[in-house]
Every structure is written in structure tokens, then in C-alpha cells.
Amino acid sequence: MDTVFIEGLEVDTVIGAYDWERDIRQCLRLDFSLGWDIRPAAAGDDLTQALDYAKVAEAVQAFAEEARFELVETFAERLAASLMKDFGIAWLRLRVTKPGAVPAARGVGVEIERGCR
After folding, report:
1. Of the residues 60, 98, 114, 117, which is catalytic?
2. What are the residue ranges spanned by the domains of the chain?
3. Is the pLDDT of residue 117 over 90?
4. Which of 11, 38, 51, 59 would you label with 88, given CA atoms 20 to 30 Å apart?
């Protein structure tokens, strides 16, 4: 299985368990590894056979715009399921970082892996 990746995609969303967090948008930084067989696209230099990372990024932005979760865990699970279903991705690894959540840390978050590689 080949891997298509997107690193450092920043999205603004409503995320957090505290009351004050429910009224603001916060930045999340996302890193993706997406399992995809690139051979058909490469053989014919054919974008229609590729996993279009621009469309994936657009879908992620749209998801984040509508999301209203308390936990980054929920954000990660729901986003992973949505991408796998909508794009036919068999396997993915997703890292969600919430910068500034812990003042002494550059960021905190979760990393999940779903599907079969």
C-alpha cells in the first residue's frame, strides 16, 4: 500500500470541554497518512485515478467548519470515518494537535490509525 500524506493542515473549529471554549473557534493542526495505490494514477498520469489531496483538504476544512466537539478524540474518530467513507480510503493515520491547550507544551492531541494497511 502506498501512502499519500498531508502535513500541518490547520483548521479552525469549535473544540473543547470548557464553557469558554464552546463560544470560540480554535486551531487544530492535522497530519494525515492515507493508504492509496498510486500505480493506476502514475501509469496514465491521470488525476482521476489519484487520491486528490486538494479535495481531501477541502473536505477536512468543511468538516471542521461544522464540527462542535468537546474532545479531540471525537473529532479524530469522526473525521477519519468520514474521509474513509467519502474517498474510499482503506487505511489512514491521523494526528490531531491542539496547540496551546497546555501552556508548557507546543501542543497536545491524539494519533489514530484506522483500517487495514
Report:
1. 98
2. 3-102
3. no
4. 11
